[in-house]
Amino acid sequence: MSDERKKDILRAVIDRYVETAEPVGSKAISSSRLGSPATIRSEMAALEEDGLLEQPHTSAGRIPTAAGYRVYVNELMRRHRLSVEETERLNRALERRVTELDRVIAYAGQIASRLTSFPAYALMRTKSDLTALRFDVIEIDPRSFILVALLTGEAVKNKLFHLPTPAPEGFFIRAEAILNSSFTGIPESAVTESLILAAERASGDRQGVFAAVSAFLIELLGESAHGGYAVSGGARLLEHPEFRDAEKAQRLLGFIEGEDAAPSLPMPEHNTKAKITIGPENLAKELENTSVVVTRYDMGDDTELLLGVVGPTRMDYPRVLSRLQYLARGITGGSPPGDGGIAEE
Fold first, then answer.
1. What domains lie within the chain, and their CATH numbers?
2. CB-based contacts of 90, cutoff 8 Å, min separation 6
3. Quick one: which of 106, 109, 244, 314 could link to 232 by a disulfide (CB 3.0–4.6 Å)?
4. Does the pTM exceed 0.70?
5. Are 292 and 277 contacting, i.e. CB atoms less than 8 angstroms apart?
6. What is the pLDDT of residues 8-56, one digit of tens each?
């Protein structure tokens, strides 16, 4: 975004919506800095045309879209500095030190959920050298194929995939070539969204084949790396208007509490400490209407702790991220910063 007024108005809409969970009208955010309600309405209409806001009802105000939240996170989100009160509260929660691995994981999830008001998960992982050595794509018919993956250690895994529509001629040959040139010899952390998008462009994939294959590969490469997984605070989901439908909340909780959830949850990319995925950016279908904020902390001995929360896209991203980073550092024995803020990674 290049227009500063639009940026300010988008930030104001998101901040207000996070606070109230109600569509935001022009009068609610009008000020001498942003302009009159009429001026703001015009800019909000332009933001809607850009796909960053949407109007849930004809006469209602506007709410952010997933694309709007992404612009906010990438360009507009200010670093949240923890207040003295927040820091004291976090430190009180960290007073109870835990050393046993399974108790560390459970404890991490519990306090993360309590201090963010969202369901939280904690995942302990050991760094793994497992990679794919070769892929074979076996075409069954134009709408289905079997992927065979040869992994280090001579393990062979395969899976049958179905497509919603017939694949273009030559697609399976191109897909196999791209998999063997770009997806072999890399760790799980290197199977990133940018890699998937590049593969989709190169192959002409418009059916999500590489997204599905990548999810399968991440699951394979992560199988031996998970040292423990715990979810806490599932009932907190019902505190948010977006999940007052018990059936909708239960579907999400059933997924994140399941045994197969860990490989499908977002992970910070290689050499990064945190990641925020918004709505349809999540590969797992069950997470397409939610956001996930996850942080990574190195515990030594080739082990890392991943601490994340799952909630509605209407999330106070800077506050949640700051608290998770502070908690992860404290839980794993790091020294919390003394200025009430979060130290730069």
1. 4-76 (1.10.10.10), 84-127+227-331 (3.30.450), 132-222 (3.30.390)
2. 82, 115, 323, 326, 327, 330, 336
3. 109
4. no
5. yes
6. 999 999 999 999 999 999 999 988 788 888 999 999 999 999 999 999 8
